[in-house]
Queue: 4 jobs
Job 1
Amino acid sequence: MGTEHLLLGLVHDEAGPGGVALASFGLTLPDARAAVQAIVGVTEPAPVAHIPFTPRAKHVLETSLRESLLLSHAHVDSGHLLLGLLAERSGVAAEVLYRVGIDLEEARRRALDAIAAAPADAAPADAAPAPTPIAPRSVVTQANARAHRIAVQLDQAKTAKDAALDAGDFATATAMREWEKSLLAERAQLAAAPKPGGRTPPPLDPPQ
């Protein structure tokens, strides 16, 4: 699943801040799909049990969480996802926006306006907390640090997914669900990796 699928989800969600900002440029779902198809030849991923995110799409999701933190928000919605997409200046989504004539800086301004104008109930009290940076600890191995990061992001992805479903924001819910699957796959890969000396480092305390 690439950045183009995230973009199509945002355009489809016309009521969310991300969709509102994109619609203000006159961008429609048929136009967006046509632009994607002109670039990659297809607009939808093949139906399989799990479609992993591309590294660029995963980076967009991580950036959307950082954007939420910078805005002092306690939730992640389609507006933050759009900010994450706009920050990724390369990739299919960026090429689509360029081809349809959307200026990225102006799109960011409109996204911020749409986020600010969103009703208060668009951010449920139990929405995903903004990411908390993990302080480096010299006594923790690299594997433990990675496991801790995955645990924190899994909690954020699950909470954001549940909050988005409660708010009817299905574009964000779908993106968070796929990110959750990607993190679970990464955790399984980490657990299966051989450890130095044949021993598994002690796990970190779970995030509170």
Note: The mean pLDDT is 78.
Job 2
Amino acid sequence: MFHERHSRTIAKSITWRIIAFASTVIVVYCLTLDWETSLYHSVIIHAVKTVLYYIHERAWNASNFGQEIRSH
């Protein structure tokens, strides 16, 4: 059975947050034309979302839903 380590979940969380953070900054800037507002909101939003993503991943890893063991 495949078991994902905490370090892998953390790495996935960080790389996804970098992509999501950059896109949020750009979108908020396009709406506000203010870099300070864009960065402020993006930092708060993505700090919360990173923690929620980690919890979500660990919860799914604790479940066997949709997993199967295959023999070759």
Note: The mean pLDDT is 89.
Job 3
Amino acid sequence: MREIIALSVFLILTGLVIFLVLKKHIGNGLTAILLAFALISGWSIANHDWMRNVRWEVPGIQPFEDKVQSIKREAISAIEEESNARRKALAAMIEDVKSASQNLEEKKKMDETLIQAAKKLDDGLKVQEQRMRELQGLAENTKEQMIAVHDATANLALVLTRLIYLQLETKGEPGNEREMRVKQEILDSLDHVVGMAIPNPEEREKFISEVKNLVPAPQ
């Protein structure tokens, strides 16, 4: 199809040139130019695809284009390397931030755990201190009570020893003055013993009355 169009263009232009020559409107030089143009036009149309693939270059420009392409490739390679380096650095920074955040979170949890443990320990120490104070107070009270019991027992033993001695010394001596004095000493000692056993005066008087009522009065 393209060949037919090329042939038609060539024949039309050639016919037009011949017509102009016969009419003597153009000279030989212009005729040659027009015939060459008709031939080139027809050939160009017929070989259109081939002409599209032909590289039309200015003489001496190829080295310049090669240099430009080389610089372009080097620039693209440098940009890619820099981009890759920046991406790697950014990825490393992100990992560092993640690691730091994780370490910070773990440190925060550890601090909270330590604070809770310290609080529990402090509470436990306070409880132990309170118990120690209570035990110390109880021990002091017990010590005081034991001292009081010891003193009371010692006094009671001394009083009983005194009573026994007085009874032994006055045995078999009824009705004399010495017996009366010993009897009074015995009563005073008994009163002292009762006072140690019963600190309340009312309860002590009640006990003494009950004891006196055990023995009937002399007739």
Note: Helices lie at 2-22, 28-46, 48-53, 62-169, 177-197, 201-214.
Job 4
Amino acid sequence: MNDVNLSIVIPVYNSEKTIAALVNKVNDELAPMVKQVEFVLVNDGSQDNSHDVIVELSRQYATSMRYIQLFRNFGEHNAVMCALNNMTGDCAVIIDDDFQNPPKEIIKLVKTLYEDQVDVVYSYYEQKKHSLFRNWGSRFNGFVAQVILKKPKGLYLSSFKALSKELIDIIIQYQGPYPYVDALVLRSTQSIGRSLCQHNERETGRSNYNLRRLIRLWLNMFIGFSVWPLRLMAIAGVSLSLLAFLMVIYFILARLMGPFIFMQDIPPGWASTISLITLFFGLHFLSMAILGEYIGRLVLTINKEPQYLIRKKYPLKSKKNDGSNI
């Protein structure tokens, strides 16, 4: 590990009470073990005093820290993409700013990355210390990722992970406004490792993930990286059309052969009305899905909404992007 230039990526949001201690602890743990530690901190529109704290840190770590301040809150994955575009290390470890992942565990991920010669190493835990709501949301996202993104069964998509430089160079080619880092990983490589890590209770404050943020993350995965929802609409349209056709056959036979079960008390005209409504709804969903397939692909291709917008960098230099990523 002594020849590794390691980038530590930290998306920051309202972390004035933890970020300084986290950076200092990471540096203490890693400085003796790797060639160089580079910190890449992205302030994702924090509303507290995080900016001033990080500016002071950037003075303390003037030769080893890149601090990027965004114009507003774009989301954790957008902030991570910004950091990956501005790192210079041989590999990167992404770690949250809440201190729930002990800095001493970082070296485990890096060792597994190099020893197993994989592109990415995800941490996993014997027992997670998140809230019940957060754990439920993670399980649901994992299930959706397994169905839509073909996530390997048993793989936990942790935010605490190590990525190779080769994989990072592929991931940052994505320029869309709604990135989901794990989806970009899963669509780029099957060379995935796992490392058992410790997970601690949150030291201060509460998780920034609420229902709205979890839904947004799910939608990014569900819609941004798959046309599966549109195909589901097509299946629903075909199914409703088939149901309407069977109902028409049923009512015709009932008219010719006499009323069947459930038909005795039906008023005249009801059967034909329900059949036509069901048929038209089925055709409507089917046509919407076909149009949506085309429109969705066009939107994903030509949408120029910014992925992130950089207000300022400390120091004022960058490896790849000099401003916004659009």
Note: The chain has two domains: 5-226, 228-302.
